[in-house]
Design goal:
Blueprint (H helix, E strand, L loop, with lengths): L15 E9 L5 H14 L3 E7 L2 E8 L1 H12 L8 E7 L7 E5 L19 E3 L1 H9 L3 E5 L3 H4 L2 E3 L13 H6 L9 E5 L4 H12 L4 E5 L2 H8 L7 E3 L1 E2 L6 E2 L9 E2 L6 E2 L1 H4 L19 H19 L8
Parallel strand pairs: 2-5, 6-10, 7-9, 9-10
Antiparallel strand pairs: 1-3, 1-4, 2-3, 8-11, 12-13, 14-15
Length: 314
């Protein structure tokens, strides 16, 4: 394997603080909040994505410790977000290219109307109590993430719905009556936000004992020692680190920039892998015209690297 195809080892810790955050709250002034929020992030060198909607805020951002602390203090000073919680991890380099603050219909898109986690939601379970719950034979454990995320890591014994998007989850539930066969439903996701809506939906559908992992996989990997863990693999994250492992250390996956699928070292050694062009997951579904277009983009990325710049398509 050549150096170009190897996955670089990540540094321990990192200079950048990565904050994943969300908060459900009635937030009718979300449109007018966009400009001051963007300005604060830009002035403090913060990059990432924040979503604003009538139902609250969601996103992941990165910056210096001081910059992230400034942002969190600003958000918690808003009456709607006084109780906002967040998860922190480290990155050895800035994991985002730019800052985006977007206005959305939902801060996490399920596509089901009248779902309000502020009114009805499942029971939180702390990471230290999660193992006991999912080991209970009366519990069905459901991963609410998408297929490209579950492909690289999942809790032992969990049901994988194999959804392409979170919009598919409600239909999957309705098509699986066997979920009613056990009294307890335990659900989890990356940081907790999808489970807020997923457990609200399950309660609406008549499931009574519905639980979700507080703080999601990220909190579990942060607080539960690896030797006690029931988590297998790595956790996909939506930034250039691609994945994190126990202790929230940066993982060793690389992203296929043609299909956005996380790749292992073995998949990168595949003859179907071409950087920025194809991988074993997408090679058969792309035309030669597609691949040539991706090659042109990759050449532009390579030229930007030679100039010491980062191309937005990388």
């Amino acid at each position: 394997m050549t150096d170009d195809l190897s996955i670089p080892a990540h540094e321990e810790g990192g200079a950048f603080c990565v904050a994943a955050l969300y908060h459900f709250a009635a937030f009718p002034r979300f449109e007018s909040f966009r400009a001051p929020l963007f300005a604060l992030c830009k002035d403090n060198g913060i990059k990432g994505t924040l979503l604003l909607a009538h139902e609250g805020i969601n996103g992941t951002v990165a910056g210096t410790d001081e910059a992230i602390a400034t942002l969190l203090a600003f958000l918690r000073a808003q009456p709607e977000f006084a109780g906002l919680e967040h998860k922190e991890s480290r990155a050895s380099r800035m994991p985002f290219l730019r800052m985006k603050v977007r206005l959305k219909k939902e801060i996490v898109t399920m596509g089901v109307e009248d779902i309000d986690p502020n009114q009805i939601v499942g029971t939180y379970v702390d990471p230290k109590d999660w193992n006991a719950l999912i080991s209970d034979p009366d519990t069905i454990v459901i991963d609410t993430r998408n297929d490209y995320e579950t492909a690289i890591g999942i809790f032992r014994g969990a049901v994988d719905p194999n959804t392409k998007t979170f919009r598919e989850f409600p239909e999957w539930v309705k098509n699986n009556p066997g979920l009613h066969n056990k009294p307890k439903i335990a659900m989890y996701c990356t940081g907790g936000i999808r489970c807020e809506k997923a457990t609200a939906f399950m309660k609406q559908q008549g499931f009574e004992e519905v639980y979700h992992l507080k703080g999601g996989i990220l909190k579990y990997l942060e607080h539960v020692p690896e030797q006690e863990s029931l988590w297998d693999g790595a956790c996909f994250v939506f930034d250039e680190r691609v994945s994190v492992t126990h202790g929230l250390k940066e993982g060793e996956h690389r992203l296929c920039h043609a299909c956005r699928y996380p790749l292992t070292a073995e998949e990168i050694r595949s003859p179907l892998y071409e950087e920025g062009v194809s991988c074993p997951h997408c090679h058969g579904s792309r035309s030669e015209e597609d691949r040539e277009r991706y090659r042109q983009r990759q050449r532009q990325i390579a030229l930007a690297r030679k100039r010491g710049e980062r191309h937005l398509g990388s």
